[in-house]
């Protein structure tokens, strides 16, 4: 079965008519992200959903039919219903992959899954962002250069309040000397999470080939490889060992 | 300033008059734990609090005056108010140490901080528990033998649904062949968390010297070493580097 | 290009005519391992090499043509030439995957790559080994049951002196209450390492389906995904950023 | 017993009469480092040793009497005898703490303990180095500001070929946009290792208060807390469990 990817975007800057955002993304950030994934993962099924859809486009049925969810949110985190957040959290714990983008560091599902404040430093002056690969053998770094430049981007900077990541794949620096752990992974239950910070709505970041490559690699990497099952309490039985040994 | 420790116990088995529990712990589990800490950390200030206290004994003022909170809960997790859970979570993120014991794997603050289901396998047949030290250089393992036996204890078994721990210090096995990551650590913000699984209410585990040693080591290890501050969003200023360089 | 796998075995028990070993593995342990890989990875090219081959069958040319090297050794670790060990170490650092089996915990390349003594506890009484999956979302755990039993196997036990693993995927227990981190991963440079402890020569472990599944998963997982390149010192140039930004 | 610290320096730039180095460190880099440690750890015993001393000042007796060894080397790594390197490696595995400084990333004991090439990018143009704390709750970060500036320093840059660190405490950036994991920890056996990159011989880095604070914290943190013992193979006995249970 091909990879089933769902790109979620709050789509609020766009529907409010923000000219800068619409200039870069006339059909919404989600569409640009989805286009990039389709280009690099031609066998995947790539769909999109937005906040304004019924149940934000994230019904249980939809999540059950999704291997990988990408999440872009910024100014409407609070409008995401707690019921949907519960659902997303459980889906990840059961094995659905999650790729959280940029300002999604404050998205409800991300904060819930990580348990930290996810706060950070920021500054928006259109700085160049330098992205450095610090785990070159990691699948998410495949075909990504040792370093690449994003011409203009919002600054995200340490201290980034996240748990110790499983993997730190990318570090970013900015003209002001700031540094950020810009590509990190986590595991929650059977689910894998990849956070990638480049992608502010004011800059055309998701059109850049290196960024598209990272997102495609990330989507493939978080995809479940061992089925879907929510971890549950198991009442063990005395003597199971002996039976088991009778195999 | 001496270490300020607060031992929290739901204290429900005891107040309901459970004869087994009261047989082992006539003054409550919290009192036995506190006694062990006082014995091994004579310079510490050790206090106790229970669910029935106003605000469960966990007012903001009290938490601000606490370096390390130990948590024992079992049948009344749901009775802990969400407001107090928020408070505990923020206190840990700001640097307060947290030691979670046994059935506290399902305590609200633990689940909130970890982001997983924290489910596990269990069986209660009074098995011996073998505790193995697998990180002998870790401070929590100081003066703990390479392996020790708890004569009778409830079985907790894998799969234990927790994020990848920062440290795995102890592994436990049981007569039925079960295995459990019984001593693990996590970091959330500035706060350190130590989970230690031995300690079911039906067995006198907290009177055992090796267990008391582990708890004392754990309390010392999670204690904050760099002040208390909740991580916050920081708006950086262009040019801070240049000013900074003028030092 | 299909996965290029090389199974290395010292092949000394076999050539000395050890009846027990030959009873289980008439064509050598390497042949049984290779058969298992061919069965589960039909598209892979699976070859074998042994200590007695010229350069132990591990010439630079051969290693350059290998994606994944599996290593079984026991009584002849010291007969492996340091030159070949250097070569294997560099190949792993450059990206070649390495799967180390059972008594290979004391193989020269493993010790060199890990930097620890790799010592452990052991006992050989034909105990049942219980293998528990503790990272069910990991690709190496795909299609492996939550727990399975190896009917008879040498006991390996903690303390196992290895660096903190990147992933702990399997834990094993034995009838005597022992526990062992039996499936663990490490990264060195661009290369991935998977150590799996079941597989003593006196028991027919490599014929067991679950074990074959783990080895096939492990081989696939350690395979390089981002080319082969030995990390090197790079003399940076002032001003590279500005040029880079001219993209 | 007070902390027993030994500061080792190859002391070659100094004895060759390098005017820049002697300008900053008239009594050698080791003396400046030792002075800083004495200032901040007044209860510690701080001694020094250099390459030219008999056995490089690192006899087995001396190492057995040392809790923490700091290592500064640059142009004479190859002159350190393999016998001494073996000794240092075993001492760390047994519990001695090791703090490796700057160009010591290529010191024989460090490479041996880590198992990687430890190569990196570099450029020496006197850039400012910004050191960011990314693990503010870590004891090595105690009383270290969230970020501080080293006015002039050699650039070290990613990709730094080290295993995944246990902790990443500091990240550094440079005027050219480079980034480096400048403060990282590892565990090998019972021993803890802290690597800290600032400290090129051409700049007076070890006189700077923040750097002195980091080194003092690092020395305290790597110090053994659970005795000294080289991990060894242990032959277990059938039935030990039953005896053990007779406690």
Automatic annotation (TrEMBL), chains A, B, C, D:
It holds the Pfam family ThuA. This is Trehalose utilization protein ThuA. Coiled coil: none annotated. InterPro entries: Class_I_gatase-like, ThuA-like, Trehalose_catabolism_ThuA_prok. It comes from the Bacteria. Residues 30-222 form the ThuA-like domain.
């Amino acid at each position: 079965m091909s990879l089933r990817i769902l790109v979620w975007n709050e789509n609020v800057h766009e529907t409010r008519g923000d000219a800068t955002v619409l200039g870069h993304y006339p059909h919404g950030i989600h569409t640009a992200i989805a286009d990039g994934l389709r280009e690099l993962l031609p066998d995947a099924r790539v769909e999109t959903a937005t906040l304004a859809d019924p149940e934000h486009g994230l019904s249980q049925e939809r999540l059950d039919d999704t291997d990988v969810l990408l999440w872009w949110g910024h100014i409407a985190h609070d409008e995401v219903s707690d019921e949907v957040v519960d659902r997303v959290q459980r889906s990840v714990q059961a094995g659905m992959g999650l790729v959280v983008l940029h300002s999604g560091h404050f998205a409800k599902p991300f904060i819930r899954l990580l348990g930290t404040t996810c706060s950070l430093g920021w500054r928006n002056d259109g700085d160049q962002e330098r992205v450095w690969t610090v785990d070159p053998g990691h699948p998410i770094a495949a075909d990504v250069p040792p370093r690449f430049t994003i011409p203009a981007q919002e600054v995200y900077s340490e201290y980034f309040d996240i748990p110790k990541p499983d993997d730190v794949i990318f570090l970013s620096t900015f003209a002001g000397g700031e540094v950020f752990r810009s590509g990190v992974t986590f595991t929650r239950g059977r689910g894998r999470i990849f956070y990638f910070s480049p992608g502010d709505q004011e800059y055309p970041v998701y059109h850049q080939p290196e960024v598209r490559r990272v997102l495609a690699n990330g989507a493939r990497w978080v995809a479940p490889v061992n089925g879907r099952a929510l971890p549950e309490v198991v009442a063990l039985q005395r003597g199971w060992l002996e039976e088991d040994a009778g195999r």
